[in-house]
Amino acid sequence: MAQDWGTALAFLLAARRPEFIRGLAFMEFVKPLPSWDRFVPGAAEIFQKFRTPGVGEEIILQNNFFVEQVLPMNIVRKLTDEEMSVYRTPFPTPESLRPTWRFPNEIPIAGEPEDVYSSLEKAHEVLAQSTYPKLLFAGDPGAIVSPAMAQSVVKGLKNCRLVQLSSGLHFLQEDHPDVIGANIKEWLIELGIGSSPKQKLAL
User: Fold this and answer.
1) 141 phi, psi to nearest 5 deg
2) How far apart are the first and last CA of the chain?
3) What is the pLDDT of residue 198?
4) What is the pLDDT of residues 51-86, one digit of tens each?
5) In terms of residue numbers, what domain contains 96?
6) Catalytic residue at 4?
7) Same domain, 126 and 188
């Protein structure tokens, strides 16, 4: 099960070790974009700032922008103070926030970074040819993946089912944990996975 950057890692793993994958559930996934105008509507400017030396570090490392702004803005419901505290806990210092600065700098857009762009292009090509079961969750309106895009993706993949959620932006797991969990459980049962301790699913 993968979301956001987790999908990039999952797609790369699936491309390199197809025998390791029995099924793939994913949502709000990362894919190479040929230009910035294909990025999330209204978000290109701030993400370009994230990738500007000196500016991105100030916004993210000093102000914890992803936890304090991106996270709550991309969840339909309002996180409680207790929930926000849990998200803040792993990032007590600017240095601890460095991975959250690195992630937006690695998004493959307009050919950059070249190594990430090339690797994910190949991974998506392999994904399109793969036949193992897939389960795509989509929010409405979604952030990276709109309902219309989700339908197009499902049509372009083999053995892929779409679960259209009633609402949701980027962090769908925060708005629909029960629905997502129930669908994955039903899907795994259909695949015959989980009935034996020896059976494993690559997540």
Assistant:
1) -90, -5
2) 5
3) 52
4) 999 999 999 999 999 999 999 999 999 999 999 999
5) 36-106
6) yes
7) yes
Based on the domain organization, do 197 and 120 belong to the same domain?
yes
pLDDT in tens, 188-202: 999 998 655 454 445
Whether 176 is catalytic: no
Catalytic residue among 4, 124, 174, 176: 4
Its pTM stands at: 0.92
Interatomic CA distance for residues 105 and 107, integer angstroms: 6
Tally of domains within the chain = 2
Tell me, yes or no, if 114 is annotated catalytic: no
**CATH code of the domain containing 168:** 3.40.50.1820
Marked catalytic residue, from 124, 170, 174, 175: 170
Residues 15 and 88 in one domain: no
With beta carbons less than 8 A apart as the criterion, state whether 141 and 166 touch. no
Cα–Cα distances in Å, from 94 out to 54, 58, 71, 83, 88?
Answer: 14, 9, 17, 21, 12
Task: Kindly report, residue by residue over 75-134, the tens digit of the pLDDT.
Answer: 999 999 999 999 999 999 999 999 999 999 999 999 999 999 999 999 999 999 999 999
